[in-house]
Amino acid sequence: MTSLSPDLEAVVQRVGHLWEVLRGARVLITGGTGFVGRWLLGSLVVANRELSLGVRVVVLARRPEVLARVAPELAAEPSLTLLKGDVRALRPDFGPITHVIHGATAASASFNLADPAGMLDVIENGARSLLGLCEALAVQRLLLLSSGAVYRQPCATGVPLTEDAPLGPDAPEETSAYHAGKRLAERLAWEAVAEYGLRLTVARPFALVGPYLPLDSHFAIGNFIRDALEGGPVVVKGDGTAVRSYLYAGDMAAWLWAMLLDEGAVGRTYNVGGERALSIAEVARVVSDIGLGDAEVEIRGGVGSSGGGEWYVPCTARAQRDLGVMEWTRLEEAVRHTIAWNRRGGA
């Protein structure tokens, strides 16, 4: 048992009867070693054991050894097959696949800035390769993990983004290859629906928080948690006025499984995120209050590192209505759990 066991059990309970869809299934997850992928794998392993589903899982990753280092209990799970490979060059030599979750993308602001062509290549040609595999193997269901970054920037401040909000341009600017690539991947997937009847659902995750979140990347709340773990102060690199909302990773995992498994989700696009809008400065104070016991926050007023523009808050009414999901975990609880997990050394 690990400290995440209660959260993983909660995911299993919230997905409920939908797990039966996966009985005897063979699932491919690309990007399984990342933040989102580890939550999906962990919850699936628990469901597989408790419900005796007989699911087999293939995890495609460029560096599968990462999973053995950061989550050895998952790497040792006999129902998982770790496959080293590039999503842009998939070969259907690992047997039949019934369900796919495609999340293989480098969610890296530094990579996006340093090599926008490389970022676009990974997303576009990875999607093309994956969709070709789905056609060749007659895959039953695909959940495509897109991003809330597909929406046009700047957004209308104060107005939560619905799935029908305007998207940005497909042609990337130097700093928006990730955004444009995600839009292109969505378009390619919908073309596959029209061409050969792929049963598709698109998920657009927004800002997330929870164990496994990188603490040294462009995720503002991750950086704040790192600062709190190091004794403070919690540093806001920008002016702190940009607005975000957060969904706990355990809640996210339940949402994504429902999107893959619920028949009502086929042919739909869903935002995945929290709706409680807070300025970055307010988020920093939440982290500082929980991690340090007082509001040791330093606002530097420079250029912030958090992507998503000045307003990055979704409307999730569609997912809540169609799938019965909700925000079960308040931000304060999510931050408290994430800090405690990291203080235990990720155990």
Report on the architecture of this protein.
The protein is of the alpha/beta class and 347 residues long. It has a single domain (5-213, 246-274, 314-330), classed as 3-Layer(aba) Sandwich (Rossmann fold), CATH 3.40.50. The protein is 41% helix and 15% strand. It is built from twelve helices and 14 strands. A seven-stranded parallel beta sheet has the order 3-2-1-4-5-6-11, sandwiched between helices. Strand 5, helix 7 (177-196) and strand 6 form a beta-alpha-beta unit. It is globular and about 55 Å long. The termini are close together.
Itemize the secondary structure elements and their pairings.
Blueprint: H1 5-15, E1 26-30, H2 35-51, E2 56-61, H3 65-70, H4 72-75, E3 80-84, E4 99-102, H5 109-114, H6 116-137, E5 141-145, H7 177-196, E6 200-205, E7 208-209, H8 220-229, E8 234-236, E9 243-244, E10 247-248, H9 249-261, E11 269-272, E12 278-279, H10 280-292, E13 297-299, E14 311-312, H11 317-323, H12 331-343
Parallel strand pairs: 1-2, 1-4, 2-3, 4-5, 5-6, 6-11, 7-10, 8-13, 9-14
Antiparallel strand pairs: 9-12
Helix pairs in contact: 1-2, 1-9, 2-9, 6-7, 8-10, 10-12
Keywords:
41% helix; 12 helices; 347 residues; seven-stranded parallel β-sheet; Rossmann fold
At a glance:
With 347 residues, the chain is α/β, with parallel strands linked by helices.
What would the average pLDDT be, to the nearest integer? 91
Task: Count the beta strands.
Answer: 14
Determine Rg (CA atoms, Å): 19 Å
Helix content estimate: 40-55%
Name the shape in a single word. globular
> Which fold name is given in CATH as the topology?
Rossmann fold
CATH superfamily: NAD(P)-binding Rossmann-like Domain
Number of helices: 12
Q: What is the architecture at the second tier of CATH?
A: 3-Layer(aba) Sandwich
**Structural class of the secondary structure composition?**
alpha/beta
Low-confidence blocks of residues? none
> What percent strand?
5-15%
Q: How far is it from the N-terminal to the C-terminal residue, by CA?
A: 10 Å
| CATH first level | Alpha Beta
- Biggest β-sheet description: 7 strands, parallel
